[in-house]
TrEMBL record:
Domain of life: Bacteria
Name recorded for this polypeptide: Glucose-6-phosphate 1-dehydrogenase
Residues at the catalytic site: H235 (proton acceptor)
UniProt-listed InterPro entries: G6P_DH, G6P_DH_AS, G6P_DH_C, G6P_DH_NAD-bd, NAD(P)-bd_dom_sf
Length: 481
């Protein structure tokens, strides 16, 4: 259905995220008829562009990132775009230009901050001081919110001074992914799974987010961040909350997020002295990716001193509550791994040994997030003929994003949720802070540690230490060859 008309103001309008994700997502929703023609998308950035020049860049970006773009629809879409050259962090900048463009207070206004997070507080203050924040304004904050617990708190406080929490939309695009949302349906609409979703039945859980890409020219950002901040603190911990949370009383934003934050608060702090047994960091050295030779991280980065930034993390988390105590949640994410793959594996405990021969494994539910979202839960059945040899009857279901109402990209649904004012799939302040509270001691320990990340060859599943971490408990990563 069509949303009410709006003004979408993007700070960081010439940046990579805007071109690669935000404009293509808004375009697709427009092409699907969900965005009214009189909506406006206002780009702001420091570059001295005009409407025409920004539209030209947008046209190019749509050409690159939307494969079925229709040129007459593109023309109509581009007509909605305006550009104001403005440094949002500068109170003395040309705010009048933006103010005169935003002349309709009765429209929903979304301010999307896709700039360096250090500017969020200043931009929020300026929006308020310049009278641009209306009753129905929302502010969307891209990750990362801070770089550790203290800085995250500061960002939240600074923005919170000018925008009430229910108008702050912290985006984590993994929550916009079809298969991630599906975890909620799978868990709570299937009594069979719901009853087996605990320490009695689950042996362990794995969440993998593997990428083949390396730095992609983002070295400036990435080297100061690393895989723990870039992927684990947000995307993977968000997935973990959805897998592990208790049944919410409803699907309302706060009901859902109350349960998610409880999971984060129940994460067992990683033991300082024994961090090495629960957390592995890696960095790729030269190898092959997609059949091509690729350089080591440090060569790609081309810095002066060798960098200790991790491009891979594998860790073992535990949730200290009645449902999950003792069940390992293994998370891993890395760049330059063998393939692009995001998946959640719930390994159920093996049956009593003996009947079908020893060592018969338990079932495993696989939720594939990407590519090709799907859910697979094999049932063991008897192989036809004599005897009781078992085989897997594959019960799997494709989660087809191409179906009516589906999204090709996670940002599509989320961008419109912000217009509609529904924060259910956005991250609340206490969630971000709880996630940082758990992750920050790892960062601190690494900083104290004289060693660095373990090397792994590009195109492999990370350092051997990641495999050993699971082997010690008699477990193995689902993909690891
Ligand atoms: C971003 C990270 O948040 O997520 C990137 O900053 C990463 O480094 C990306 O590549 C992965 O997203 P997706 O949707 O491709 O899994």
């Amino acid at each position: 259905e069509r949303v009410d008309t709006f003004d979408y103001v993007i700070f960081g309008a010439t940046g990579d995220l805007t071109m690669r994700k935000l404009l293509p997502a808004l375009y697709r929703r427009f092409a699907a008829g969900q965005v009214p023609d009189d909506a406006r998308i206002v780009g702001t950035a420091r570059s001295p562009l005009d409407d025409k020049a920004w539209r030209e860049r947008a046209r190019q970006a749509l050409g690159e990132h939307v494969n079925d773009a229709d040129s007459s629809v593109v023309d109509r879409f581009l007509a909605m775009l305006r550009y104001v050259s403005l440094n949002g962090a500068d109170a003395n900048a040309h705010w009048d230009g933006l103010r005169s463009l935003l002349d309709r207070d009765d429209r929903v206004r979304v301010f999307y901050l896709a700039t360096a997070p250090a500017l969020y507080g200043d931009i929020a203050r300026n929006l308020d001081a310049k009278g641009l924040r209306t009753e129905t304004s929302r502010i969307v904050l891209e990750k990362p919110i801070g770089t550790d617990l203290d800085t995250a708190r500061r960002v939240n406080e600074d923005v919170g001074r000018y925008f009430p929490e229910n108008s702050i939309f912290r985006i984590d695009h993994y929550l916009g992914k079809e298969a991630v949302q599906n975890i909620i349906a799978l868990r709570f609409a299937n009594p069979m799974l719901e009853r087996m979703w605990d320490r009695q039945s689950v042996d362990y859980v794995q969440v993998t987010a593997a990428e083949t890409v390396g730095l992609e020219g983002r070295g400036g950002y990435y080297d100061g961040s690393g895989a723990l901040r870039d992927m684990i603190q947000n995307h993977l911990l968000q997935v973990l909350t959805v897998v592990a949370m208790e049944r919410p009383v409803s699907l309302d934003a706060d009901a859902l997020r109350d349960e998610k934050v409880r999971v984060l608060a129940s994460l067992k702090p990683l033991d300082r002295d024994d961090l090495g047994a629960s957390v592995v960091r890696g960095q790729y050295v030269e190898g092959t990716s997609g059949g091509k030779a690729v350089p080591a991280y440090n060569d790609e980065l081309d810095g002066e001193a060798p960098s200790r930034t991790e491009t891979f993390v594998a860790l073992r988390a535990e949730i200290d509550n009645a449902r999950w105590r003792g069940v390992p949640f293994y998370l891993r994410s890395g760049k330059r791994l063998p393939r692009k793959l995001t998946e959640i594996v719930v390994q159920f405990r093996a049956t009593e040994p003996g009947l079908f021969g020893d060592g018969h494994p338990g079932s495993r539910l696989v939720i594939r997030v990407q590519p090709d979202a799907s859910v697979t839960l094999p049932l063991f059945v008897k192989h036809p003929g004599n005897g009781f040899a078992l085989e897997e009857a594959d019960a799997s279901s494709r989660l087809d994003p191409g179906a009516a109402g589906g999204f090709q990209d996670a940002y599509e649904g989320l961008l419109l949720d912000a217009v509609k004012g529904n924060p259910a799939l956005f991250v609340r302040k206490d969630e971000t802070e709880a996630a940082w509270a758990w992750v920050t001691p790892i960062l601190e320990a690494w900083q104290r540690d004289e060693g660095g990340p373990d090397a792994y060859e590009a195109g492999t599943w990370g350092p051997a230490s990641a495999r050993h971490m699971l082997q010690r408990e008699g477990h193995a990563w689902a993909e690891d060859a």
